[in-house]
Task: structure prediction
Amino acid sequence: MQWAQRITASTWFNHSITGVILLNAVVIGLDTSPDLTRDYGVWFFIANKVFLGIYIVEALIKMAAEYPKVQNYFTNGWNLFDFTIIVISLIPATGQLATLARLARLLRVLRLVSTLPELRLIVATLVRSIPSMGHVLLLMSIIFYVYGVAGYHLFHDVDPTHWRNLGISLLSLFRIVTLEDWTDIMYAAMALKPWAWIYFVSFVVLGTFVVINLFIAVVINNLDEAKAERLRDLTEPPTPDEILRELRDTQTALARIQSQLEQYSERR
Result:
């Protein structure tokens, strides 16, 4: 349907949906205040129903824009994401499902990702980075395992709190790699083994500076690829259907202008 295609392609429509999502996020935040919920709980409930109704209308308009090939709506991953959130939001907020329904409302805030192209680009970059990150995670797991076993044998008798078994040793290493008070663990080990700083400094260099920088490098590389792919999509030649749609819109506009000119001539 041409009217639906014009609406979905318009800037005001996308900006309006973004504004509705932001308002919905504000209402969800206000609903966490017991005092406000006590005084305005009914209005919050009505507002959430209105927001859900707007989302349903938006989905129907986007489906109408794809008519008669409505299935094309579900081939778009972002449309499928939005539709799933709408379906989950239809869970009744009563009985045992009340908590789940409130959490489902919170998912609506995630729709900001699908409405803003820049956020979609970042999410696409992260998804593209998952296969490459798997190899980085494997390298990091090997480093953690080697240092975890070594740390147990070296320090479990000195500092059993942080090195009493392999699991606790790995948790201690995770704390070290986040640089959260890791020097406390190092100084506890250095109290009886002064050379222990070599172990900790080498792990910080490998675990923090090398591995984390590898993560950053993978994400930046995939971000460049995602930008290049997006640029290719924007520069692709229009399809025959798109050309025909533009021609029909142009003919409609010309016919409207001709009708206005004839009316103007008759008045003269």
